[in-house]
Amino acid sequence: MRAELTSDASAYRDLVFPFLQSDPVRNLIILTSVQELAGTPRSEREAAYFVSVHDGPDGVVTGAAMRAPGRLVYLGALRPAYAEIVADAFLEALPDAPGVAGDRAVAARFADRWCARRGCRATEVRAARLHKLDTLTPLPADGVPRLMTAADVELVAAWGADGFAQEIGGNYLDWSRLHLREQRLWLWTVDREPVSMVAHHLPVFGVCRIGPVYTPPEHRRHGYAGALTSRVSAEILAAGNQACLYTNLADPTSNKIYQHAGYRPVADFVEVEFSA
């Protein structure tokens, strides 16, 4: 068994996608991230690092992990038995990695290896649950949905800054314009006023991930996000794709709402941060 590291997103995509597509729901974060990075010229982005695990006499790919610019190392559904070899592959390239995310068991083993080598401490800071849509049940709310328009770009950028600054990375207007161009962000409106937004990623191997979902504090507890999520889910299904989403395990309300819409738990993932 061996692990190989590269910064070439396009070559990595060609290498690991045949393995990852066997379970596109559990592997969707890596699939979508690599797809997006492969479409961006390397001169226009910070370095990203990708690890593939190879096993057997033919060196068949049996695992994948990555670290996108400004993010935690992401292990996804990597097998726990590969945690140490993947950590070793990243150690030289990423001396200052802020943390790791993935299945709890593999993230814990990776963190143990990392901290033993770097002399740091690991703290679990977040836990999320991956859900896949089973049978859609539309959720009702006052108001109507619509795709965002050019007139919504600044509003969507502001909402992105309020709710997803870490995920978006500060380029809020560019992020908003991208969703406008690709027509993958919806607004729920009441009396023509936007009160909630739901976006989705482009499909990869027939799976779309919903997110981000955001409702400003003054418009919460009216069911807008749930109703809009179920509408966006219906659009994804109508296009012939599967729908999935992540929820924060610290927010039991959202978990319950999405289950009412027909989403069923698939797996739990955690984020672990490193500190001195």
Side by side, the strands of the main sheet go 4-5-12-6-11-10-9-8-7
CATH topology-level name of the largest domain? Aminopeptidase
Instruction: Give a count of the beta strands, DSSP E runs of length 2 or more.
Output: 12
Q: What is the tally of helical segments? A: 8
The poorly predicted ranges are none
- For the report, how would you describe the main beta sheet? 9 strands, mixed
Q: What's the CATH architecture of the largest domain?
A: 3-Layer(aba) Sandwich
Global geometry? globular
Instruction: Tell me the distance between the termini.
Output: 31 Å
What structural class is derived from the secondary structure elements?
Answer: alpha+beta
Number of domains: 2
What does this molecule look like?
The protein has two domains: 2-119; 133-268, Aminopeptidase (3-Layer(aba) Sandwich), CATH 3.40.630. It has 276 residues and is α+β, with helices and mostly antiparallel strands. A hairpin with a 6-residue loop joins strand 9 (193-200) and strand 10 (207-214). The longest helix is centred in the middle third of the chain and has 16 residues, at 153-168. Helix 1 runs antiparallel to helix 2 (28-38). Helix content is 36%, strand content 32%.
